[in-house]
Structure formats: structure tokens, C-alpha cells
Automatic annotation (TrEMBL):
UniProt keyword list: Oxidoreductase
CDD domains recorded: SDR_c
The keyword Oxidoreductase belongs to this UniProt entry's keyword annotation: yes
Organism whose genome encodes this protein: Thermoflavifilum aggregans
InterPro entries tied to this protein: NAD(P)-bd_dom_sf (IPR036291), SDR_fam (IPR002347)
GO molecular function, one term: oxidoreductase activity
Name of protein: NAD(P)-dependent dehydrogenase (Short-subunit alcohol dehydrogenase family)
SUPFAM superfamilies: NAD(P)-binding Rossmann-fold domains (SSF51735)
DNA-binding in keyword set: no
Family in the record: Belongs to the short-chain dehydrogenases/reductases (SDR) family.
Amino acid sequence: MASLLITGASGGLGPAVVDRLLRDGWSLSVAVHNSQSAEKLQSQFSGSALEIHQVDITRRDQVRKWVQSSHQIYGLVHLAGGFRGASQLSDAQEADFEFLFGLHARATFYLLAEILPILKQKGEGAIVTIAARTAIRPGKEAALYAASKAAELTLTLAAAEEGRPFQVRANCILPAVIRTPANMQGASEKEIAKWTDPQDIAELIAFLVSDRAKSITGTTFPMYGGISA
């Protein structure tokens, strides 16, 4: 079976996506940011078709090494993300800018720049990224996060256009709030009930990387749950 490259596999969304794709028979090459994350995944998915690599996806040399060490690549599922520095623009810190744009914009650029030539040469492939509702509906206290996710979205749509003549597809999912353990801390049951379940996102990803979605590219998929658009 062809392989998929996955980032953010050890995050709040990652295990649900990894499990779903393994059940579809995919071989997975996953990037994690530290040895603790690698050990956790190895324990959780012991005996499965899973290769784990420790990669800093904000460094192009490490991204290139990871991509080149993977075999029979069919696509990329880019789950990695983060949030910090909730503030208005007038109070925003440069360190938060560097962190958010490094993780969402720079990393996405490096990943797409390294994998697109391989998929174009093969004449097939699928890319799925996870941006956010705020990429198209920014709030006043998450400007840097919203802008960095908008960059990720735009890079994905550009990849779709570059890949279109080569049957390489790229699509982007826009959740509002995902029902992850970190997000659920301190939240009320009423709030949590409105959020998107990781399993639902995993199902959509499984569809988008499959042949059933061979005509779908350059598309955004809002997944807002019970949160208004």
C-alpha cells in the first residue's frame, strides 16, 4: 500500500486520524517533535504499519530528510498546529508571531515544497491540511493565529492549483473548536457539546485521501459543529 506522511500525529487530533487511516490499510510515516511523543505513539499503535520520525517541521532540512526517507508516498496529512498569545494586535508579541507563523505558515510551505515535486512526478496524490474557522472569520483577540492559519489555507489552495494538471489534489479542513483533551480542560459540557469530534474529522480525511474524492481539489471544508458560521 502507498504511504501517507502525517504531522501532528501525537496531538489532540492525531490518534483518531492515525487509527482511521491504518484501518483503511494505509502505511503511515509520521513526524513527531520529541522522543516522548514517539514513545507514546509507538505504544498506542504497536505492530501497525507506522513509521515514526522525530522531525522539526519548521526546519526545511529536517522536512526534506523525512520526505526523502519515506517510500511510495501518495500524500500528506498536515495536522500539526498550536495556539498561544491570545491578544489584540496592539498587545501582540513578536515571539507569538514567530511561533504561530513558523508552525502554520513556514512548516506548511516547507512540507508542500518538498512533497509536491514527488507527487507531480508520480501523476497522483492527495494533500489534506487543517486550518481553522478563524482563517476566514478572524476574531479581535486571535489575529496572529487567524493570520497564520489563513496563510496555511492559502498555501494549500495554491498547491491544489499547482497539482491540478498532475492529478494531485489538495484540500483544507476548517474546524472551529475540536473536542481534544487540552481544549476540554475547564470547559462546560454545554460548550463541549458544540465542538467537533476528532472522529468526524478523521472520517473526512479518510474520504479526501481516497479515490472516492478523486474529483475534489482546491476545496475548503468548514466543520464548525454547533458553533455558528
